[in-house]
Q: What sequence folds into this?
């Protein structure tokens, strides 16, 4: 920002007043500020990550030695089910789309908020409620124990009389509502709220990744919801969707589940691709190689991902002519990923890499992702897949993908954007140590799983005999597990300490390429005092444009301070289309989320009356929500 | 590029001003895109139901199973046709609102509302009647049959709620917010009508193939 | 099905130290049959190709690591043409490789390892998964066994895989790929053993509490030995020889026959495995414990400690009754 | 320029939609032809797969052609960094040119494998 003389100061003050949040806790409850919602997501998912991690460590401890008795089979079954459900639905998706997406996307596209701020708040509160819903069930002793893929008939009433699978089915539908709302919100935000001038060919690759993930969620989740509706009806209301004796089908569950489940895997890692393509330019001071291919590859991974679902079902005995379709798609879905890997590597080589902690995590991510990706590629060979299917080989593969490829960039991103969110710098050396701990730990944790898999160790077994010869590998894995946990604690400790007494970061410590670095750290409620000018995909490197913003502020152009205003532009070319007033903070999202939670509670305890009453209250609160229009407030 | 060139659409206070602002902006508003997202998501859900119907049917030696009469064709098809025609008044309403003709908008919406609620009333009565003859818990066929049909009726019901809410809103004059809502809800109804045709078509297909 | 914590620790340890003698393991990398051999060679090729890819990318990363020396003021970032070559080359090679893999594996190897037609084989076995043991019916004979399947060596055997409850998966890693047991669907797989031996099989689809203890053993015998074994299995159970065993038979009638079958007696239960020739088996409870009087006894009175949640309740018996019962069961050759 | 502005969307959208359709219908047909219901319907796998393969292949080639034309029409005026709509057309046509090849490969693998293979052998 240039020297601030009086008119400018007045304008900034106006904005400050205009965007002033409610004070205190009320402010957090009723907030519609994407940054606050992002932080709420971040903390909630962090807690759930801790729970999922604790479950994982308990399992590793049980498997550390043969015939171990740390937990019994029924506890162990609940543990791996909860671990899977938590990490996928309650950690990675909300952490990437929820926390990173919410906080960063409006900043990166130069908007002042999401397209639907109140819906954004709603998706968080619904997510929180669904998490509580599931874990209250778990704490009350009815945790689901049918594995995260909940195959019928094992999860039907006949074989699983407890309440656990009802919690599973409803919690997933409930959580699905949140994710669907969020993804719809992201898509519209990235379509309509981009700063004028940011056409498709100037949108950061980070945004393309989140666009892909959002489209994936939007089209994948309904299949899962349908599946869970069937499961719930079959368990509680005597329908026969999965009942072979009455003309149902058990494979129906698997088809619908994996139609969601495989795109899901890409939905988990594509945001990580986005984080990588955001961090690499900053630490190589070089535009990402092959921008058009990166952009399309990110979309393509998810798109082709919709055509591979039955490669999770190669052992169910489908006709060969059916499975080849999925093998072919599985083979080619490798290519977009390969394109990205090559262009990341080439960007690193042809740029000037500074291996600070975030870039270290990205390098580690590339290594882990290629490792997991290549073993995934092996499943194109159907007979080989049928050999290792459901063994620890598969566990190793998708943990290399999900931990290595999805979570590493999340960690990298935590370090990278920490200065933006807190205004402080993290501690570099401890950060690098935490990386090496996590990198060594995860490889020690997951690599031996490949071997025990090939030696025939099935997944989801609570113990094994010494004669199997799996003991040494499992012990190594457990040690790796604890090493990883230690590394993660080091990471979090670093961030906490840095938050308390880190160096001030300034607006742009990395000379980052995208717009979030063009505003102060932490950003003000209105993100940008003037709607930024954009003439390339690396807006923050266009010095002339940034100076222009400063001039605009000085002579009051593009400040949009006549209300709670932001700019809306056309979809393809980002032509400045209209100026709209955004909703202020609203109490209705948490209220509606609460009513929804009560509806699901009523359903799970079989009190349909209660559910009906609160369904009505949902409608009422929707009425209240829409009573005042943004410009009336 | 200056903000003076573009309309502050939410500040338009009367019907004509709103219509002018709507004409000046480029492309569809965010609200319309939001509705499109809802349609995409709902469409996929209903698509999963329809796919389930066909998947279960593939594995069945007799469809519908012995003892269940083939579903009625003529009346449901006719009703679906009637519902389909309501896309016309909905579209006319969405055109009228963009021309700032508030009364016309109200009238078209009202007309559509009457026809659609009539449709739903008849269909629900019929649904209950069928439920009494064949329980949803009889077998997989009846499960998916009633689920699919019920889900479709639910969509019609939600459409009616939206319409009712919109009519109440329009009593207090026109704003950009309500204009966007009208356009979006018209699209929702196009979706619901198409959906109904597909669902009825699927359920009655046993008489054809 | 809410068992306490597994208490079978010590017992299990002792058990497996005995089982270790069996020398049977589930190592897909030491194939003993043509199916597993084809797949193993497929794996080694895959490993080779993928290791090359892994090495290539790692090399690129290492290269970047050494470029870090060239740190300096952020120069004006610019495009380079070099990447186009790398991209097209790398991607082209990958596509070619994947197409080749697809054709070889999915058009040829599948056929090489699939189940022979029932008519084309001298022996068809029906494997039925139960929570949590495997039942094996020798089609066309009256022979029924549990958890231990005998096949003639160097003969293609068709295994029809079926389930009595939930989804299970039938896998003998050293002989062939796995196939699921799906309710309402008939799947089959081939077993072919090149040389006599004992091969370990497992249930590879999570099927509930005791999924961990649902293994089985495949004994590949010389044809003559197999014929003798099968003939023996077809016979109804031997009548109890001693007075003690006769008392044991009565105990069985009171305590066990509601769940178990012993052909040639009044016992026709179908919850648990067929015990007609129990004494010919080497292991019990899904290869959890060896089949000896001691283990059998502790199983009968305390199966819930050894295999928590399994369908068999702990039977409370006086020592006399137990001894009698064991004497009877021990005579079931 | 106007032509390119139209062709870019053909290039971008036709190939993916074709593949999705071919994939859904193709694997659907393969399941139908092996299903219980097919005893009354009598759908023949091979004929359908051949038709699908040909139609899908042609559509994707058309899509690729459109992308190439759009690219060549705009290449002279600038690259994908240029201001919209030029840069956007460049971006989309470059991306489509590369991805359509991928879809062509998948469709060919699908079609050929499902034609040469014998129907309804359990994998």
A:
């Amino acid at each position: 920002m240039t020297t601030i003389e009086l008119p400018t100061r007045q304008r900034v003050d106006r904005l400050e007043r205009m965007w002033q949040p409610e004070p205190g806790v009320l402010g957090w409850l009723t907030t519609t500020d994407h940054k606050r919602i992002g932080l709420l997501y971040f903390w909630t998912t962090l807690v759930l990550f801790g729970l999922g991690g604790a479950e994982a460590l308990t399992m590793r401890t049980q498997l550390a030695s043969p015939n171990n008795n740390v937990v019994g089979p029924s506890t162990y079954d609940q543990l791996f089910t909860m671990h899977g459900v938590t990490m996928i639905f309650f950690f990675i998706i909300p952490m990437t789309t929820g926390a990173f997406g919410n906080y960063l996307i409006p900043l990166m596209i130069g908007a002042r908020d999401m397209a639907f701020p109140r819906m954004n708040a709603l998706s968080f509160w619904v997510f929180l409620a669904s998490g509580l819903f599931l874990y209250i069930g778990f704490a009350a002793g009815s945790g689901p124990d049918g594995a995260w893929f909940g195959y019928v008939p094992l999860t039907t009433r006949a074989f699983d009389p407890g309440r656990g699978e009802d919690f599973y089915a409803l919690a997933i539908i409930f959580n699905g509502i949140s994710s669907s709302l969020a993804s719809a919100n992201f898509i519209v935000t990235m379509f309509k709220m981009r700063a004028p001038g940011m056409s498709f060919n100037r949108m950061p690759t980070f945004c393309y990744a989140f666009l892909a993930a959002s489209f994936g969620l939007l089209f994948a989740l309904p299949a899962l919801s349908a599946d869970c509706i069937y499961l719930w009806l079959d368990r509680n209301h005597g329908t026969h969707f999965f009942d072979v004796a009455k003309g149902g089908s058990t494979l129906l569950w698997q088809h619908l589940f994996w139609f969601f489940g495989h795109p899901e895997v890409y939905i988990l890692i594509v945001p990580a691709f986005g984080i990588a393509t955001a961090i690499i330019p900053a630490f190589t001071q070089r535009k990402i190689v092959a921008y058009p291919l990166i952009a399309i590859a990110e979309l393509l991974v998810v798109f082709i991902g919709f055509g591979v679902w039955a490669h999770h079902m190669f052992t169910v005995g489908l006709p060969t002519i059916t499975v080849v379709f999925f093998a072919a798609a599985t083979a080619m879905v490798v290519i977009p990923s390969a394109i990205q890997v090559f262009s990341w590597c080439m960007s690193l080589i042809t740029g000037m890499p500074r291996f600070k902690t975030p870039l270290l995590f990205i390098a580690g991510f590339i290594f882990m992702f290629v490792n997991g990706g290549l073993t995934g590629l092996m499943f194109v060979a159907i007979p080989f897949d049928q050999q290792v299917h459901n063994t620890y080989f598969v566990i190793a593969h998708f943990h290399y993908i999900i931990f290595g490829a999805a979570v590493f960039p999340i960690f990298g991103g935590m370090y990278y954007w920490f200065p933006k969110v807190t205004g402080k710098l993290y501690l570099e050396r401890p950060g690098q140590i935490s990386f090496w701990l996590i990198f060594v730990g995860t490889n020690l944790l997951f690599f031996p799983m490949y071997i025990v898999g090939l030696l025939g160790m099935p997944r989801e077994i609570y113990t094994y005999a010494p004669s199997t010869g799996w003991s040494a590998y499992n012990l190594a894995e457990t040690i790796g597990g604890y090493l990883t946990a230690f590394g993660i604690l080091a990471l979090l400790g670093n961030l906490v300490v840095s938050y308390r007494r880190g160096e001030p970061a300034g607006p742009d410590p990395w000379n980052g390429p995208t717009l979030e670095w063009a505003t102060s750290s932490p950003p003000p409620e209105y993100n940008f005092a003037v709607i930024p000018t954009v003439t390339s995909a690396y807006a923050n490197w266009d010095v002339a444009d940034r100076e222009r913003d400063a001039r605009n502020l000085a002579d009051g152009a593009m400040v949009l301070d006549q209300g709670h205003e932001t700019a809306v532009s056309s979809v393809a070319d980002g032509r400045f289309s209209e100026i709209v007033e955004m909703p202020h903070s609203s109490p209705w999202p948490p209220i509606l989320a609460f009513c929804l939670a009560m509806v699901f509670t009523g359903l799970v305890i079989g009190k349909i009356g209660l559910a009906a009453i609160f369904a009505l209250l949902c409608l009422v609160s929707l009425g209240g929500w829409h009573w005042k229009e943004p410009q009336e407030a | 590029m200056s903000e003076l060139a573009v309309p502050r659409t939410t500040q338009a206070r009367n019907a004509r001003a709103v219509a002018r602002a709507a004409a000046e902006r480029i492309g569809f508003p965010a609200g319309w895109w939001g509705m499109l997202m809802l349609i995409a998501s709902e469409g996929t859900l209903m698509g999963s139901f329809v796919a389930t119907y066909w998947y279960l049917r593939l594995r069945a030696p007799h469809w519908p199973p012995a003892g269940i009469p083939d579903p009625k064709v003529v009346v449901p098809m006719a009703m679906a046709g009637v519902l389909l025609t309501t896309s016309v008044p909905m579209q006319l309403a969405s055109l009228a609102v963009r021309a700032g003709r508030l009364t016309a908008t109200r009238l078209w919406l009202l007309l559509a509302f009457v026809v659609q609620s009539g449709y739903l009333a008849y269909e629900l009565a019929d649904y209950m009647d069928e439920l009494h003859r064949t329980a949803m818990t009889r077998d997989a066929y009846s499960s998916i049959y009633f689920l699919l049909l019920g889900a479709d009726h639910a969509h019609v019901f939600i459409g009616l709620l939206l319409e009712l809410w919109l009519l109440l809103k329009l009593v207090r004059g026109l704003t950009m917010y309500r204009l966007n809502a009208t356009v979006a809800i018209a699209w929702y109804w196009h979706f619901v009508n198409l959906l109904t045709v597909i669902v009825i078509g699927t359920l009655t297909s046993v008489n054809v193939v | 099905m809410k068992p306490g914590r597994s208490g079978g620790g010590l017992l299990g340890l002792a058990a497996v130290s005995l089982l270790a003698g069996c020398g049977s393991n589930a190592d897909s990398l030491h194939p003993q049959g043509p199916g597993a051999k084809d797949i193993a060679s497929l794996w080694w090729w895959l490993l080779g190709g993928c290791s090359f890819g892994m090495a290539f990318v790692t090399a690129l990363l290492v290269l970047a690591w050494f470029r870090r020396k060239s740190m300096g003021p952020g120069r004006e970032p610019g495009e380079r043409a070099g990447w186009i070559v790398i991209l097209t080359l790398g991607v082209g090679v990958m596509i070619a490789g994947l197409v080749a893999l697809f054709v070889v594996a999915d058009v040829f190897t599948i056929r090489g390892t699939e189940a022979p037609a029932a008519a084309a084989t001298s022996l068809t076995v029906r494997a039925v998964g139960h929570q949590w043991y495997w039942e094996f019916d020798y089609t066309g004979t009256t022979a029924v066994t549990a958890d231990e399947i005998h096949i003639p060596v160097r003969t293609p055997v068709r295994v029809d895989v079926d389930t009595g409850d939930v989804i299970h998966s039938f896998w003998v890693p050293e002989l062939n790929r796995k196939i699921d047991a799906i309710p309402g669907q008939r799947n089959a797989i081939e077993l072919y053993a090149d040389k006599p031996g004992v091969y370990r099989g497992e249930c590879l689809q999570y099927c509930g509490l005791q999924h961990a203890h649902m293994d089985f053993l495949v004994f590949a015998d010389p044809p003559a030995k197999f014929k003798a074994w099968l003939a023996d299995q077809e016979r109804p159970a031997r009548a109890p020889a001693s007075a003690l065993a006769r008392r044991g038979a009565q105990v069985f009638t009171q305590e066990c026959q509601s769940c178990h079958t012993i052909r040639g007696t009044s016992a026709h239960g179908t919850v648990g495995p067929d015990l007609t020739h129990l004494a010919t088996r080497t292991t019990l409870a899904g290869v959890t414990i060896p089949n000896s009087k001691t283990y059998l006894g502790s199983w009968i009175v305390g199966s819930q400690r050894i295999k928590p949640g399994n369908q068999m309740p702990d039977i409370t018996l006086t020592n006399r009754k137990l001894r009698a019962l064991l004497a009877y069961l021990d005579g079931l050759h | 320029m106007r032509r390119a502005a139209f062709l870019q969307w053909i290039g971008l959208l036709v190939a993916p939609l074709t593949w999705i359709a071919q994939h859904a219908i193709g694997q659907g047909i393969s399941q139908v032809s092996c299903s219980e219901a097919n005893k009354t319907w009598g759908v023949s796998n091979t004929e359908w797969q051949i038709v699908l393969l040909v139609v899908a292949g042609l559509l994707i080639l058309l899509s690729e052609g459109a992308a190439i034309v759009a690219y060549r029409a705009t290449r002279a005026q600038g690259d994908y960094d240029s201001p919209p709509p030029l840069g956007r057309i460049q971006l989309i046509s470059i991306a489509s040119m590369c991805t359509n090849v991928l879809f062509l490969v998948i469709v060919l693998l699908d079609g050929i494998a499902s034609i040469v293979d014998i129907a309804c052998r359990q994998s």
Q: What stands out?
A: Confidence is low (pLDDT under 50) at residues 1-23, 72-78 of chain C. Helices of chain C lie at 9-19, 34-67, 82-113, 223-234, 243-255, 293-306, 319-330. The interface with chain D takes residues 95, 99, 102-103, 106-107, 110, 114-115, 187-188 of chain C (CB under 8 Å).
